[in-house]
Amino acid sequence: MIYGELKTQVASYLHRTDLAAQVPTFISIAEAYLFRELNIKDSQLSTDLTTTGEYADLPVDFLSLNKITATYQGVAYALDYQNEPETYTGQTTPTKYAFENGQIRIAGASTGTVVTLYYTPKLTALSDANTTNWLLENAPDLYLYASCLEGAKYTRNAMMVQGLTPMVSDALDAVKRFIERRGQPSIGSLQIKAR
Questions:
Q1: From 17's CA, which of 77, 86, 131, 194 has a CA 20 to 30 Å away?
Q2: Where in the sequence is the domain holding 25, given as residue range(s)?
Q3: pTM for the whole thing?
Q4: Cα–Cα distance between 181 and 13 in angstroms, integer?
């Protein structure tokens, strides 16, 4: 399914031919809710950040952090989070990070230090120019139900709101479980040995 098909299905599901102009708004409001509720780890990206002093700008599509690594003598290691990291005299390698004023602070960094940021980006909202995204490809039912719920609220159709609310909740829970499962290994070489 792509954006144009979703708009058609929303209007059809609502049994209304007079809402074509409002359907994109229903989808947009549904997206705002869904994007707040979901952390889609499948879309994880990595990028190198170069510091100015101890600070580096976050990517414009940054949503949530997975980890930050620095390389010292050819070995990559993860930095630890500390709300207010302190830099000690003589510290020559990055050790901790914090978020400050929309930037990331790398304690122990100097201008030109490169760290690798692994993060989950914001989902891109659907539009005529962006006809699909991870959520629509993997959970078209959730997109449809959530968009129709917004349409039912708009038309003040209490019976439809009552029917769609648990459908959205169930589909959202299913997508959260799907995301969680995809982030865990399936059967592999991990073995538990008795002592």
A1: 131
A2: 3-40+123-182
A3: 0.68
A4: 30
